[in-house]
Amino acid sequence: MKIKSISLPDYSSNIVRAAKSMTISTRDLHVELQPDEVLVKMIAAPINPSDISFIQGGYAIKKPLPAIPGFEATGEVVDTGSNAMHFKNQRISCFTQKMSWGTYSEFFVADAKDCIPILKNLPEKQAACFSINPFTAYGLMEEIKQKRQRSVILNAAGSQVAGLLRQMARKEGIKVINIIRKPELKKLLEEEGEEWILIQEQENFDKELTIIAKKLNAHLALDAVGGDMTGTLLNCLPDKSTVLVYGGLSGKPLGNANPLQVIFHKKVLKGWDLNHWLAIQGKDRFDSISEKLQRMIIDGNLSTKIQNEYTLEDYEKALFQYIKKMSLGKILLRP
Description:
The protein has about 325 residues and is of the alpha/beta class. It contains twelve helices and 15 strands. The chain has two domains: about 1-130 and about 305-335, Quinone Oxidoreductase, Chain A, domain 1; about 135-275, NAD(P)-binding Rossmann-like Domain (Rossmann fold), CATH 3.40.50.720. Strands 3, 4, 5, 6, 7, 14 and 15 form a seven-stranded mixed β-sheet that branches. Strand 9, helix 6 and strand 10 (about 195-200) form a beta-alpha-beta unit. Helix 4 (about 135-145) crosses helix 5 (about 160-170) and helix 7 (about 205-215) packs across helix 8 (about 230-235). The protein starts with a strand and ends with a strand.
């Protein structure tokens, strides 16, 4: 049996050059599964920021070239190793970093531990984007609750994680201060019903953030950007506040923090890692959270925005559309 996959011949920081260098490759599907592996027939796979970073060679994982991109997907398990037979014929969502495989393929191999069984009524589009962002938002919401915050600051407010967090925050009665980079996003957030929206490039941004943070008693900022924005958040927050860094979209080192704010105003800068958070939950609690999140999606109380779908053959159009309009939602690739 022959299968089609997207093939990346080389990494390039120039995403346009990288995208144009990729091809559709065809190969025989000959797989000897290890005991804890599964073979998945791909149904849909999203383009994520991590995929863009991988294609550019800037992600933490580098695969031998030529490589098949794609980390996340939903699909049907068509074969398993001896220790994963309980997954046979199940629909799953997964995030996989296998060296010889990627999800931008008609079939791919994943470790059973990276697969999440999907409830029958969960829509395919939502299942494709289920294994990372909803859990990230849920874990960050737990941080907000543990710190007993009734308001929180989010940068990269046009991202899907931020969107999921806002949906959860509304249910909890938590106010959100949204920081965006592109002015055109303001109207989209206002249509969602958001009241506090700041454009980071606007004049007096630091002053406005300081005033609103104090007014709403916001002592926690969730930072997906890094770079100088991390220090700006730290400097603008009230005394005894925390900046939780969970992403580095800027691609730059953390900076701009006034050390006196840390020393004399008792402010804290801390990292948050989804993999670590998941590891300390334990299997039973993870399964419980997974079912809870899936039911929230099925009931219409939580959703990831999907802006469009493309076939694997149209990967170039898909990549460029996603890069240009990330805030409009995920782009899905289908076989």
